[in-house]
Design brief:
Shape of chain A: globular
Radius of gyration of chain A: 18 Å
Number of helices of chain A: 10
Strand order of the largest sheet of chain A: 6-9-10-3-11-12
Number of helices of chain B: 11
Radius of gyration of chain B: 22 Å
Helix content of chain A: 25-40%
Oligomer: heterodimer
Bound molecules: adenosine-5'-triphosphate, magnesium ion
Distance between the termini of chain A: 29 Å
Largest sheet of chain B: 11 strands, mixed
Structural class of chain A: alpha/beta
Structural class of chain B: alpha/beta
Strand content of chain B: 25-35%
Helix content of chain B: 10-25%
Chain lengths: ~250, ~475
């Protein structure tokens, strides 16, 4: 699915990722934890190709392709999905219109016909139900005036409709109430399959009670400094990150 | 980001072809003889010739306005030809079958089939080619309900009392420099009369085309909605791509009598000039409507073309409880310049006006909103709401707002909101991360920005306007 080898990346002349290695196999769920500013969001941005993030070394293989050969939208159409830590608003563009355009772009890429408005409407309604968003949200502008939690659920709804093969969730749990957390976790769990992988970035082990990961990694100072099973999250909750800092150097 | 966006704005102007047709074109230059020629050509009554000559005298004493936020080289008004018409139009065709096939093909190429079977369902069309009206469709059908829709030249002969009563009643000859010029040399345009209590059964539409080189187009449109009537009218316009600038100076007058409603929509796509800012239409237009008691006039404009646009569709809210609306999308790209907005003049009691202006600037263009809200002393309870949003694409363009408020009645409520935003890198990234390419992303974001205005357009045209925006933005992202 994804093999990151010795990845270096910088933002505005500042080295953020410093030799990061990570392999994700189909069907696996990897949790990434780590202190603020460690480079977790940067990793998601680099993988999805965001402008301003300069790769200075290493390679990433995504389903047999060199990820860095692909444009942002090509990576998306090939199945890479990033759920944003801070979803942005697009005023006046209805959620429905936006989602249909995204889904159609992906279908076209894979040689499938565009969906009819009716077909899509049905799918979208179903997805909105699964993340407990009222259908009215489909008509509203993308994230326009959504609450923090609604934005996150909207991200999950997009993920459901796009059916990506690799889902990167960047702190999707932050700012969620307990019920919403449950909704998001259920959404993710329902999508877990042998072909689909997840990278879940979080600060809280609580999320991992709901979405049980196969691996937990600690990203600190631009590298994965520790990898373990789900019990590592518990240990981190107890001890914090300080004891690992030494291992980072 | 800005570099990326810039590439998106390299558009092909699809309407930029020229039709080779035998035309009678006056040599360039303007004097009384030219005006007499135009008037004679149209077999006009003496009063109209006098009216034109008076306008010409006024024009000679006036100077070009310089207050607008636009820059262009001085126009040599003696280098412009003030009349050009296809020879085949010497005898105005009585029906489509008599229209020169080359002309019909021109409109087909522009996506405007004129044969009634093929025409847009529910839209009657007057087409103006250079200085003359070529044909007006669905006339009989409209006539059955008493609606008059014809060229203004024809109206001068057939409905002289209406024309004489209303022409210049909203935009007087000496209103401004370009209105005076238009009054002197106007050659054609559309005339609409909706009788009392009639709801016009179709959309009425005029399509303006400038074809000949060095020719100006000076059309005059007059729409009269009698008491309690209702009409929706749409105009569109295109011109060939040429290296020289061409002049378009139109006047539109709307009269909404008691309880009448006029909805006037414009999709303006004159040739904007090339990427280096060479060529393009100078669009200097005076549009104004007067609302009597309980009447309503609603202007909606989507302005994507022209090298320079100078245009302020306005409402004089004379009658009590009358309503004026202005919804505008103005997009400038490359070296285009627009100074556009509206005037809402509140005279009657409880008059209301709404202004929604969306300016989009890309490339090295300049886009200004200029609006006046005036509340006269007698306008008890008048209200205005103005919302003025600017969207910038890239960082070499400019957006400006010049709102003027003059309130002489303390009971008036005036609200003004203004925002300036950029197509943000975050928004682009969200769209692209969801699989949309950069062009689609920009056009979607811009369309979303314009939504409030587009929803005011008649359905078919809202779709057209969206597409036009997409084409106009082509190349602004790479
Ligand atoms: N666009 C940018 N411009 C400047 N600095 C940036 C940019 N993006 C990231 N950084 C810097 O890179 C470092 C890593 O940031 P990143 O957002 O990846 O951290 P994170 O691990 O996701 O932190 P958090 O847990 O707070 O979300 C930080 O020091 C941040 O300030
Ligand atoms: Mg982060």
């Amino acid at each position: 699915m994804l093999r990151i080898t010795d990845l270096f990346a910088r933002v505005e002349e500042k080295e953020i990722l410093k030799g990061l290695n990570l392999t994700v196999k189909p069907g696996e769920v990897h949790a990434i934890m780590g202190p603020n500013g460690a480079g977790k969001s940067t990793l998601g941005n680099v993988l999805s190709g965001r402008e301003g993030y300069e790769v200075t070394g290493g390679s990433v293989d995504f389903n047999g392709k060199n990820l860095f050969d692909l444009e942002i939208e090509e990576r998306a159409r090939e199945g890479l999905f990033l759920a944003f830590q801070y979803p942005v608003e697009i005023p006046g563009v209805s959620n429905m219109e936006f989602l249909k355009a995204s889904v159609d772009a992906k279908r076209k890429h894979h040689g499938q016909a565009e969906l009819s408005a009716v077909e899509f409407m049905k799918m979208a309604r179903e997805a909105s139900k699964r993340v407990s968003l009222d259908q009215a949200f489909l008509k509203r502008g993308v994230n326009e005036g959504f609450s923090g939690g609604e934005k996150k659920r909207n991200e999950i709804m997009q993920m459901m409709l796009l059916e990506p093969s690799l889902c990167i969730l960047d702190e999707t749990d932050s700012g969620l109430d307990i019920d919403a957390l449950q909704v998001v976790a259920n959404g993710v769990n329902a999508m877990r399959s042998a072909e689909r992988s997840f990278i879940v970035v979080t600060h809280y082990q609580r999320l991992l009670d709901y979405i049980v990961p196969d691996y937990v990694h600690v990203l600190a100072n631009g590298r994965i400094v520790k990898t373990g099973g789900k019990e590592l999250a518990l240990e981190l909750e107890e001890k914090g990150y300080a004891w690992l800092e030494n291992e980072a150097v | 980001m800005s570099e990326q966006v810039e590439h998106l704005i390299k558009k092909e102007y699809a309407a930029g072809f020229h039709t080779t047709i035998d035309s009678e074109t006056l040599p360039p230059g303007l004097n009384e003889d030219v005006i007499r020629f135009i008037s004679a050509k149209k077999n006009e009554p003496e009063w109209l010739l006098e009216w034109r000559l008076k306008a010409y005298q006024a024009w000679l004493e006036m100077t070009e306005p310089e207050w607008a936020h636009v820059k262009y080289e001085d126009i040599d008004f003696q280098a412009v030809s003030y009349y050009s018409a296809p020879k085949s139009m010497d005898e105005k065709p009585k029906s489509l079958d008599e229209v020169d096939p080359e002309l019909l093909r021109t409109y087909e190429k522009l996506g405007i089939p004129l044969h009634e079977q093929a025409a847009l369902a529910g839209v009657a069309m007057d087409v103006v080619f250079d200085s003359v009206s070529v044909v007006t469709t669905f006339r009989e059908k409209l006539f059955e309900v008493g609606v008059i829709f014809c060229s203004i030249s024809e109206a001068v002969h057939k409905y002289p009392e209406l024309v004489k009563k209303y022409i210049g009643s909203v935009v007087p000859q000496r209103d401004n420099y370009y209105a005076a010029l238009n009054s002197a040399v106007f050659s054609d345009g559309s005339f609409v009369y909706i009788p009392k209590g009639v709801r016009c059964p179709m959309e009425l539409s005029t399509y303006f085309r400038i074809n000949e080189q060095n020719t100006g187009q000076f059309e005059r449109t007059l729409i009269i909605a009698d008491e309690g009537s209702h009409v929706s009218y749409l105009e569109g316009c295109t011109a060939p791509m040429r290296d020289e600038n061409q002049l378009h100076a139109a006047v539109v007058e709307l009269i909404a009598l008691d309880n009448a409603e006029i909805k006037y929509s414009t999709v303006q796509n004159w040739y904007p000039g090339n990427e280096e800012g060479k060529g393009g239409i100078y669009n200097f237009v005076t549009k104004r409507g007067v609302c009597h008691t309980n009447a309503k006039i609603s202007w909606t404009q989507v302005e994507t073309g022209s090298a320079v646009t100078w245009k302020y569709p306005s409402c004089i809210l004379r009658g009590d409880n009358s309503v004026g609306e202005f919804y505008s999308v103005a997009l400038t790209n490359n070296y285009q310049q627009a100074d556009t907005g509206t005037k809402m003049i509140h005279i009657g009691k409880n008059t209301r006006s709404t202004i929604i202006s969306k300016g989009i600037s890309a490339g090295k263009s300049s886009n200004a909103y200029r609006g006046l809200v005036r509340i006269n002393p007698g306008a008890e309870g008048a209200r205005n709401y103005t919302q003025c949003d600017s969207l910038l694409i890239g960082d070499k363009c400019g957006a400006h707002t010049f709102p003027y408020i003059e309130s002489k009645n303390p009971s008036a409520v005036i609200e003004h909101e203004a925002t300036t935003s950029k197509v943000s890198e975050d928004q682009m990234f969200l769209c692209q991360q969801r699989g949309l390419d950069a062009e689609k992303a920009v056009s979607m974001i811009v369309n979303g920005f314009c939504r409030e205005v587009f929803k005011e357009l008649p359905m078919e045209f809202a779709v057209e306007a969206g597409k036009l925006l997409e084409v106009s933005l082509e190349g602004s992202v790479g």
